Amino acid sequence: MGRRMALVMAMLMLLLAAMACSxxxxxxxxxxxxxxxxxxxxxLTPEALAPTATLASPPSAAAVPLPTVLFTATVSSxxxxxxxxxxxxxxxxxxxxxxxxxxPGHSYRLMVSSPAGQASFxxxxxxxxxxxxxxxxxKTGLLDGTTPATYEIMSxxxxxxxxxxxxxxxxxxxxxxxxLTIVDITGK
Length: 188
Description:
Order of helices and strands: HEEEEEEEE
Strand order of the largest sheet: 1-8-3-6
Strand content: 35-45%
């Protein structure tokens, strides 16, 4: 009797399983894939964004050599015009100037400073331009030193015709903050 009961229970289980499977396959909706746009709400209003560079119209004159540490100087040098500047404060701060448009025939310097006075830093720079011969030029390099430091900015081609861009970023190696400033020294 126990064996018959087990057999009947097994058959009922199989019957229930078969009904459940057939019921699922008949009543389950067929999945469809519809593409819907993803809308990401803005997180910042334009008023909350700070500019990465402050631009000014520089005066005119002649060209320059490649970045090398020259001397320590201040922006208050006679005839110097600040073209772009960015400062970041705090420990391991990063300052960046990206795609700063420079005027062909002008002379420029990159000044690296810190509100703390002396601060160790490292970073990189890149410059690109279209030469008078129609050929593009690109140069890159590393920044490494202690503030205050000044670097000559040289054009990537012998004679710049147009589209001279310069970018630089630097990070301090500790506390004190870091500031990058591009100065047009043509009228100096």
